[in-house]
Amino acid sequence: MLYERWKQISTRNQDIVALRDFASGKSWTFGQLAVAAEKAGPATSAVAFPRGHSPEFIFQLLAAWREQKPACPLEPGQSPPPIAGPPKNCAHFKVTSATTGTPRLVAFTAEQLAADAENIVATMGLRPDWPNLGVISLAHSYGFSNLVLPLLLHGVPLVLAPAPLPETIRRAAKTESSITLPAVPAMWRAWHQADAIPDNVRLAISAGAPLPLKIEQDVFQSAGLKIHNFYGASECGGIAYDASAQPRQDAAQAGAPMHHVRLKLDDHGCLAVESRAVGQTYWPEPSDALQDGVFRSSDLAELTNGLVFLRGRQGDLINVAGRKISPETIERALMESPKVRDCLVLGVPSAEAERTETIIAIVAADAKEDELKRFLLEKMPAWQVPRRWYFVDTLSVNARGKISRAEWRRKLCG
């Protein structure tokens, strides 16, 4: 199904440039890309593992589609996971981002992959005359669904940039008259600070981590460019998108449900997602959190006036003497300070009492602890203000644009 759809797209657009590789200066029309895909060697195993950030990733994926083998995209240097006896009709595996634990695989049919791409193209208005500038990982669910699938299933051209460095972005963007630029908040912050956001960006998207209001508002004020917040999950693809023309006023607002996506809350206030894009199952160990076209997330949410408001993750809630607080609530309050560049809040077991936690803040800021405490006390009760503070120059993100709460907890607690 996927390869047949690709052949239709490549035939219909055969003389149009489909793929540009800024690093090598090479480009392929859809017709040339189809020829290159036919020449690509077969996968040597039952599952194909396209990897990296180059045209070879596209060639390897198309070869897997041609041979009707499941594909499992990998980051550079990532070892292939053992996959024995994939589920019936499985066309694709995603490796989850592991924000809540050990990474695991999510199996998808061809129809589920195609449905996610259709939802994204329809909701965001991706256009062939606004090629995607690819700086995010092709292997991650976000990059795969926003860059790779629109190219191969909808004819939206792709320009591959080798790195998200400001000068590289400036130069790569000049290869097209207009571009769509999907990125993560850390990239938008760096480009804004370097005054490097290309002036031919027609559609700006941010996902992978919460987009701070300050970045969104500062970019809008300085460049007149609205960054659209996008919220999704590996298990189900796109969930919500902020299509508004003006900056949001509430950082918890994720946007409205994607086209053809239905949302509801379970008994715990967590978001449940139903759509044709929801994956088949976790693999090799199924879970009732993902089955029958429904993904039951651990994201606490509110659904108000047709919009999704995220209130943290159920497993991340901090227990302070029986009272619960989401770390995201404290992070959003801290990010309202103009002196805070980035922050992460988490709870660790308290040495003073059993079954209670101490709130810790790791902060990159141009302010001292007392000043930030006073700032927070104007916005929230005293028990919600972090008791321990760690100041750093920067909070590094992983390849998916995320700051790992679990990794910082290990650093601080061993």
Q: Describe it for me?
A:
With 414 residues, this protein is an alpha+beta fold. It folds into 2 domains: 2-311, 3-Layer(aba) Sandwich (Rossmann fold); 317-413, GMP Synthetase, Chain A, domain 3, CATH 3.30.300. 29% of the residues lie in helices and 28% in strands. The chain has 11 helices and 22 strands. It has helices at residues 2-12, 30-39, 55-67, 110-124, 141-154, 166-173, 185-193, 213-223, 327-335, 369-377, 405-413, and strands at residues 17-21, 26-29, 90-95, 105-109, 132-134, 158-160, 179-183, 201-206, 227-233, 237-241, 253-257, 262-265, 270-274, 281-283, 290-291, 294-304, 307-313, 318-320, 323-325, 340-349, 357-365, 388-391. The strands form 5 sheets. Strands 7, 8, 9, 10, 11, 12, 13, 15, 16 and 17 form a 10-stranded mixed sheet that branches. A hairpin with a 3-residue loop joins β9 and β10 (237-241). α2 crosses α3 (55-67). It is globular, with a radius of gyration of 22 Å. 45% of the residues are buried. The model has no long low-confidence stretch (mean pLDDT 91).
